[in-house]
Amino acid sequence: MKIKLKDFRVREGADVDLGKWPTKVAKVYKSDHQYHQILNDHVARLSAQQQLLYASNGHAVLLIFQAMDAAGKDGAIKHVMSGVNPQGCQVFSFKRPSATELLHDFLWRTTRDLPERGRIGIFNRSYYEEVLVARVHPDILLGESLPANDTSVWAARYRSIVDLERHLHANGTRIVKFFLHLSKDEQRRRFLQRIDEPEKNWKFSQADIEERAFWPDYMKAYGKCLGATSTRHSPWYIVPADDKENARLILSEIILDTLESLKMSYPETTEERRRALLAIREQLAE
Questions:
Q1: What angle is formed at CA 94 by the lines to CA 69 and CA 49, rounded to 5 degrees?
Q2: Are 18 and 224 a contacting pair, CB within 8 Å?
Q3: Helical axes 153-170 vs 215-229, angle rounded to 10°
C-alpha cells in the first residue's frame, strides 16, 4: 500500500477535531517480513540523506514529536533513526521547566538546542508543551511571571511559535512536526502491559494515570494547537499511533520526503583540489 502523506498533513488554518482523525489506518505492509524490509530500506535511505545533509551544509532539519503518554515516541525515534550517524543527529527531551528556565520566555530553553546546519535535531516534546500542558494545567502559568489578566496568552504564543518557525525556515532549517495520535483504549492497554511485564515497570508512573484523567482537555488543546501552528513550510502531521509498526513507516516516509525535497548534492571538487588530491594519492602510493 502506498503511503499518501497528504492524508496525514494538517492544512494551514484548519479547524482540527481529533475525534474525526483516525488513530488506526490500514496497514502499509502485508507481513512482519515486509514491515522490516520497508523499514530497513527507509533507514538506509535516511542514512544516505543524512550524509548528504552534513556534506552539503546548507540546511538543518528539526523533527518535533508530541503525543500523549505511551504513544510510542521513544520507540519511533529509536527505530526510524537507527541508521543515522550519531554525530549528525541529536535528540533532546524536554520535561517540566527548571527554575532557571522559568526566568526566561517560554521559547528560550528549546532555542538553545536547535540543530546546526548539516545536522538533524529531534525534540521529544518541545516548546509546544507551553500551549498544551500549560493550557490543560493553568496553574503552571503562575510560575512563569506573565503579565496579569493576559487573556490572549494562547493566541500570542501561537503567533510567537509561527514567527519563530518562519524565521528558522528562512534561514535554512526545515521543520516537520508529528503528533502521534493514540486512542484512549490503546493507551490503557499499553499501561496495563507496562504493569504486567516486569521489564517495562520502569516506564510507568502514577503521573501517567493522573494525566489520563485530563484526556478530553488534552484533545481539545492539541486540536487548537495543530490548527493554529501548521503552516506550509512547517507542517504538522497527525500520525495514527495505535499500530506502532505502521506509525514508524509513515513517520520515516515523511522524514524521507522532507530530506529528498531539499535536492541536496555533494560539494563539487574544484580543479585545484583535484590536483592536490592526486598529488597526495601519488605520495601514498609510493
A1: 90
A2: no
A3: 50
Q: Which three cell numbers stand for residue 74?
A: 521513544
**Other CB atoms closer than 10 Å to residue 197's CB: what's the count?**
10
- Judging by beta carbons within 10 Å of its beta carbon (0-12, 13-18, 19+), is residue 252 exposed, middle or buried? buried
CATH number at residue 216: 3.40.50.300
How far apart CA 6 and CA 19 sit, in angstroms, is: 18
Using the predicted structure, report yes or no on whether residue 170 has a pLDDT greater than 90: yes
Helix (H) or strand (E) holding 236: strand 236-240
Q: Which residues pair with 176 in a beta bridge?
A: 63
Residue 139: is its pLDDT beyond 80? Answer: yes
- How many angstroms separate the CA atoms of 228 and 77, rounded? 25
Residue carrying C-alpha cell 484526556: 215
pLDDT class of 276 with cuts at 50, 70, 90: confident
How many structural domains does the chain have? 1
The domain of 72 spans 5-285
Q: Which residues pair with 157 in a beta bridge?
A: none
Q: How many Cβ atoms from other residues are within 10 Å of residue 123's Cβ?
A: 24
pLDDT value for 1:
60
